[in-house]
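As a warm-up, study this chain.
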Amino acid sequence: MRFGTTLAILSFCAAAFGKVYFHETFDDDSWEKHWVQSTYKDDYGKFKISNGKEFRADPVKSRGLQTSQNAKFYSISAPFDEAFNNKEKDLIVQFSVRHEQNIDCGGGYIKVLPPNIDPKEFNGETPYNIMFGSDICGANKKTHLILSYKGKNHLIKKEIPTEDDTYTHLYTLVIKPDQTYSVSIDNVEKASGSFEDWDFLEPKTIPDPEKTKPADWVDDEYIDDPNDKKPDDWDEDEPQYIDDPEAEKPEDWDDDMDGEWEAPKSENPKYKGKWTPKKIKNPEYKGKWIQPEIPNPDYFDDKEIYVYDSGFVGFDLWQVKAGSIFDDIVVTDDAEEAKTFATEVMDKIKAEKEDEEKVAAERKKIMDEKNKRAAKKAEEMNEKRRKLERENHPEAYADEEESNDDSEEEMEETKEEEKEEVKEETKEETKEEAKEEEKKENVKDEL
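Now compare it with the structure written out below.
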């Protein structure tokens, strides 16, 4: 009894707390022990570990798996710590990607693979359970979400946006046992719904093959008006265009040189085209015939579409311009663990952006100072050039010198005039102040 109770509690705890089946941050060299480069092709592109072109706020945490060669296919995979069946559990796939090369055409998605693959033979035809992440090529930019069901890959029927800038972004997929899903980018939900957003199952009903449209069924809504007759003067043989009757052959037209002259065409005022009777409502119209539906004998409401046996993650990509950095990969059935990892990644992303903004500000400051120095140097060079030209060609600058002398004399005269005006104003103010003082003294004497 006690053993059974203990076992039940342990089972409940395991289900309640969940488990992390795969977690990779590439913070050290241990990744080399379990990531396997496919040898299916000889010319696959090479992955390398990098924290990017620029210095990051934390160069260790910013390390990731980077594509390094342009116009290449890439194929690499790594096993889970243990195989994972997500029946009656959440399945959460999370990773970050940074397209610092300003990607123009290439994949940025991850694949979740079954446990029985050969990593050395991993390629684009290898069966997978889930394909999830960004896919960008020109104006076509979306987040892929493809789920496998009974050996067939099903693309979601709705468009999910993606990010195509040069910053790091966190992609999160959650699949639940009730066959609902959600997709988030940087902890912001971008799509959610049910598995009806894929065409996994056969339709519930199909057209009844035993039913056909009755021979006397009228589905023409309009018919020709039997009382409408073509007018007697309606000539269907009149052409739409005729020779312009007002056009005349130019006097200088030479048939031998210019060829036979042809009058330009103009609209034929008598043209009416083919006559057709007007339409009226069909009194026999019954509407569009719709074939009756019957239950589909092949329909099966599968409640376990969401269930996968998974054992690997992998990157199977094509990139025209390399440089994408993949990092912070998590596969778990524990929503709280995924949130904890996501918070850590978002803190890293925030620090990276702040670091980039700081670097950008410093670069701008350096560039502004450089531009100022360049402008000052250019002005100094221009002044030296002008000075040299004056010395070598004084006659060319004689008028300019005289004009400058005249300007200086005018400025001196103006200064003198301003000085005299100030003196006169000061005298007047002194006289007024003296009068005010005299008035005050007279008032005191009277008192």
